[in-house]
């Protein structure tokens, strides 16, 4: 949702620049575009952190490169945001469901898209052994 807000802000900046044909109109536009790019990177950094074990600078580098490497996945993530926002704005029943259940269904849809995007890059290396902790084990 924050990404959609920044995209709307970028579109507003474009409209502002078109209405005010001065050099002052470029400053907010540059800031808004930088913020939108940062949010696209943030869309991937938490998923990369949860999926792969890398040092933090490497994770930021991978998160900056991954939207271009899996461009279809990026478009699908943005599409989920647009559909969720559109449904919430124009369908009152969905708005009530979003108030009751929150954004969990949006994040679930995004997780399926991220799994599709990461499918090509995962699955190598040693599989982690599952550990089960019993509540009465005294740990």
- Tally the helices: what do you get? 6
How does the major sheet shape up? none
Q: Looking at the structure, what is the overall shape?
A: globular
Taking Cα atoms only, what radius of gyration do you get, to the nearest Å? 20 Å
Mean pLDDT: 79
Distance between the termini: 40 Å
Q: What share of the residues lie within helices? A: over 70%
Could you give the order of the helices and strands? HHHHHH
* Relative strand content: under 5%
Low-confidence stretches: none
Structural class: mainly alpha
Protein model, in words:
This protein is an all-alpha fold. The chain has helices at residues 2-19, 26-51, 56-69, 71-90, 92-101, 104-118. Helix 1 runs antiparallel to helix 2, helix 2 packs across helix 3 (56-69) and helix 4 (71-90) crosses helix 5. Helix content is 74%, strand content 0%. It starts with a helix and ends in a 21-residue tail after the last helix.
Which helices and strands appear, and what pairs or packs with what?
Elements: H1 2-19, H2 26-51, H3 56-69, H4 71-90, H5 92-101, H6 104-118
Helix pairs in contact: 1-2, 2-3, 4-5, 4-6
């Amino acid at each position: 949702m924050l990404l959609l807000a920044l995209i709307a802000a970028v579109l507003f900046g474009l409209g502002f620049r078109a209405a005010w044909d001065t050099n002052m109109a470029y400053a907010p536009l540059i800031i808004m575009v930088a913020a939108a790019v940062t949010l696209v990177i943030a869309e991937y950094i938490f998923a990369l952190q949860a999926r792969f074990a890398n040092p933090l600078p490497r994770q930021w580098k991978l998160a900056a490169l991954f939207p271009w490497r899996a461009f279809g996945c990026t478009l699908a993530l943005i599409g989920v945001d647009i559909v969720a926002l559109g449904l919430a704005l124009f369908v009152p029943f969905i708005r009530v469901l979003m108030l009751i259940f929150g954004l969990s269904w949006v994040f679930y849809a995004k997780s399926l898209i991220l799994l599709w995007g990461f499918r090509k890059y995962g699955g190598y290396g040693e599989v982690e052994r599952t550990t089960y902790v019993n509540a009465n084990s005294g740990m």
